Amino acid sequence: GQRAFGENYAQELIEKAPKMPPDVEWHFIGALQSNKVNPLVKGVPNLKAVHTVHTEKVARKLATACSAVNRSSLDVYIQVDTSGESTKSGVKAGDELLKLAEMVNSSEDPFDRLNFVGLMTIGAPGDIGAFDKLKAARAQVVRHLGLGEEDALKLSMGMSGDFEQAIEHGSNVIRVGSTIFGARDYSKK
């Protein structure tokens, strides 16, 4: 009965989506390069959400790609860098995040195609402080955009190794593919 699945790689998602039932909701959870946006939006009609919007360029390309295929809505999460690690993507909390949140939340064309639903982070392994940082970033965005209740935006945080702590810290969305399907074999990449 599971109908929400995530995928890290745009090309793999484009290949997998047609093989699954059409009522599956796909969530793209990997690093999204701007050159992969059009093929992803066009190739996965049941793409429910992109969890890794981290630049204005990616946000603009997503909005434009949705418009081009006449998609009325795509849920988006802004990825926030809570670790400071060079290997992690994400926008910095503060002015950079607020500016991107304004854009993604805009009702102007083409951004009206994007449905800003939350924030996402991938913290450093074992750093549950990342969860508190994301909660603080959400509070800042909610205040800045005048969204009212703090839980107006979801938190996408926690993976197979720390999802229980993430839930304790308020996560609405967790990524547990390794727990369900086993570790990915990267030797085939």
List the helices and strands and how they pair.
Blueprint: E1 4-7, H1 10-16, E2 25-28, H2 37-43, E3 47-53, H3 56-68, E4 74-79, H4 95-104, E5 114-120, H5 129-145, E6 154-159, H6 163-168, E7 173-175, H7 177-181
Parallel strand pairs: 1-2, 2-3, 3-4, 4-5, 5-6, 6-7
Helix pairs in contact: 1-2, 2-3, 4-5
List keywords for this structure.
7 helices, TIM Barrel, 189 residues, alpha/beta, 34% helix
CATH topology: TIM Barrel
Strand content: 15-25%
CATH superfamily: Alanine racemase
Report the principal-axis shape: globular
Spatial gap, N to C terminus:
30 Å
- Number of separate helices: 7
CATH class: Alpha Beta
Mean pLDDT: 87
Rg, alpha carbons: 16 Å
Secondary-structure element pattern, one letter each: EHEHEHEHEHEHEH
**Overall number of domains:** 1
Give me the count of strands: 7
Q: What is the annotated CATH architecture? A: Alpha-Beta Barrel
**Structural class label:** alpha/beta
| Main β-sheet description | 7 strands, parallel
Strand order of the biggest β-sheet: 1-2-3-4-5-6-7
